[in-house]
């Protein structure tokens, strides 16, 4: 966070930053710190936490490291909802948050229905169908977004494409408050559900025998994961692969799934991507989504080559 606030053009010294944070008005520097860089750093942390938690929910629930909101179409559902609201209805402000949430939830419901989550069958089969159906639905949503972009003006399409990359350049304290409020509500709910998730990992039959309502627990976890992802997409755009990267990296470090560490990893990834994007290329600021996409794509390929062997070992 210090690097995100201090580095850039112009460079802000630590003394100047501390003076501004203590309430002193430093001409030029006060605006840079309080209205530009610090809000971006705070939004980066909150967005990373939300994406990290969301990705870990899906990866743990579906027992598949590839099952992040980016891969299974939930993020694209939120993006499609926002793009439809922007291009068809001209929505702005708070309407975009509701559009992203409805788009993400609608996509999750569609995937659940098509995958047959309510039908009888082995848990692993349902989980695999959920992932495969999600990839297919995501491809359809991507086509919808591409079609909408051809129906609007070049300038509007450019604005939408810039948002679709994922960027923190429009971060404000108001957007930070939205994410903070969402986390303040959803994290306690997730803490309650995580204890049930651990029981669910014993297997559906065992969990049912212990008195757990398996369908209700699954739906509750999916709703929390979708809401975290969708609201964050509405604020920052779909920052590629953050939800996908955070959980596996935390698992590599700790040796087991960890929601707190995944949240910290998500925050670190988004912050690092924004710092690199703002400072890597002189006189050019790259959106954070460009950096996260560059990091996530090779990691996804590595996971695809590694997963079958890992299953055989288990």
UniProtKB/TrEMBL annotation:
Chain segments annotated as transmembrane: 38-58, 70-89, 95-118, 130-149, 178-199, 220-246, 258-277, 284-304
The keyword Transmembrane appears for this protein: yes
Record keywords: Cell membrane, Membrane, Transmembrane, Transmembrane helix, Transport
InterPro entries listed in its UniProt record: ABC_BtuC-like, ABC_transptr_permease_BtuC
Subcellular localization, as worded in the UniProt entry: Cell membrane
Keyword Thylakoid: no
Its membrane topology: Multi-pass membrane protein
Similarity section: Belongs to the binding-protein-dependent transport system permease family. FecCD subfamily.
Stored PANTHER family: FERRIC ENTEROBACTIN TRANSPORT SYSTEM PERMEASE PROTEIN, FERRIC ENTEROBACTIN TRANSPORT SYSTEM PERMEASE PROTEIN FEPG
Record's protein name: Iron chelate uptake ABC transporter family permease subunit
Species in which this protein is naturally found: Brachybacterium epidermidis
């Amino acid at each position: 966070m210090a690097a995100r606030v201090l580095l850039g053009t112009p460079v802000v010294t630590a003394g100047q930053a501390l003076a501004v944070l203590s309430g002193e008005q430093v001409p030029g520097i006060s605006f840079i710190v309080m209205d530009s860089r610090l809000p971006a750093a705070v939004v980066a942390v909150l967005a990373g936490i939300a994406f990290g938690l969301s990705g870990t929910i899906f990866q743990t629930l579906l027992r598949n490291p590839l099952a992040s909101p980016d891969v299974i179409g939930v993020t694209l559902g939120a993006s499609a909802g926002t793009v439809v609201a922007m291009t068809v209805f001209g929505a702005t402000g708070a309407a975009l948050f509701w559009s992203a949430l409805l788009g993400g939830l609608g996509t999750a419901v569609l995937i659940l229905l098509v995958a047959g989550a309510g039908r009888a069958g082995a848990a692993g089969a349902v989980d695999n169908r959920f992932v495969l159906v999600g990839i297919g639905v995501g491809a359809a949503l991507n086509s919808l977004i591409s079609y909408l972009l051809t129906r609007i003006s070049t300038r509007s399409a450019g604005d939408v494409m810039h948002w679709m990359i994922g960027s923190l350049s429009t971060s404000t304290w108001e957007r930070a408050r939205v994410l903070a409020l969402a986390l303040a509500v959803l994290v306690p709910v997730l803490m309650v559900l995580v204890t049930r998730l651990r029981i669910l990992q014993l297997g559906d039959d065992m969990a049912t025998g212990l008195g757990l309502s398996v369908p209700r627990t699954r739906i509750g976890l999916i709703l929390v994961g979708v809401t975290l992802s969708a609201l964050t997409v509405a604020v920052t755009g779909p920052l590629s692969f953050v939800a996908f990267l955070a959980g596996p990296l935390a698992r590599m470090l700790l040796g087991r799934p960890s929601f707190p560490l995944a949240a910290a990893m998500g925050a670190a990834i988004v912050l690092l991507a924004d710092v690199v994007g703002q400072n890597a290329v002189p006189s050019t600021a790259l959106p954070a989504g460009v950096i996260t996409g560059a990091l996530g794509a090779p990691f996804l390929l590595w996971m695809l080559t590694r997963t079958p062997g890992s299953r055989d070992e288990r």
